[in-house]
Amino acid sequence: MAGRTVNEQKIEVRSVTTAADIGVCSLLFIHADQKPNWPELQRTLAGKSVLTVSDFEGFAVSGGMIEFTQLDSRIGVLINTEAVTAAHLEVQDRLLKLARTVTPAAPGR
C-alpha cells in the first residue's frame, strides 16, 4: 500500500506504538496486539477526523469505528456509526449494507 495514492493523496504506512506517534493521519489500524493501548489512543484521537479500524474483539463497542470479525471462514464488519459521526466522518451506504452496526457500550461496562 505504501506509495500508492487515493484521491491524489499518497499513502504512507507507519508503525505507531504510542499516542504521541500518531501525528497527522487519516486512518489508524490498531492491531489486536495493541488492545491495551486503545484507551490512550482513543483519548488522543477524541475530536479528530481519523478513521479507526481494528481486528480485536469488542473494538467497535468500545468506541472504535470499524471492527473486522471472523466467523468460521467468513470475514465480517462491525461499524460504530456514533463514533464515525463524532469524528465528522461518513460511511458510504455500500459499506453499511455489508456491515452490522453496533452501539457503544455504556461507560463502566
List keywords for this structure.
single chain, 109 residues, alpha/beta, five-stranded mixed sheet, two-stranded antiparallel ribbon, 3 helices, 18% helix, 24% strand
Q: Assign the structural class, choosing from mainly alpha, mainly beta, alpha/beta, alpha+beta, or little secondary structure.
A: alpha/beta
Shape: globular
- Total strands: the figure is 7
- Please write the string of helix (H) and strand (E) elements: EEEHEEEHHE
Question: How helical, in percent, are the residues?
Answer: 10-25%
Largest sheet: 5 strands, mixed
Brief synopsis:
The chain is an alpha/beta fold and 109 residues long. It contains three helices and seven strands, in the order E-E-E-H-E-E-E-H-H-E.
Describe it.
Helix content is 18%, strand content 24%. With 109 residues, it is an alpha/beta fold. It has one domain. The chain has a 5-stranded mixed beta sheet with strand order 3-4-5-6-7. A hairpin with a 2-residue loop joins strand 1 and strand 2. The longest helix is centred in the middle third of the chain and has 8 residues, at 38-45. The model has no long low-confidence stretch (mean pLDDT 86).
List the helices and strands and how they pair.
Blueprint lengths: L4 E2 L2 E2 L16 E4 L7 H8 L5 E4 L11 E6 L2 E6 L1 H6 L6 H6 L1 E2 L8
Parallel strand pairs: 3-4, 4-5, 6-7
Antiparallel strand pairs: 1-2, 5-6
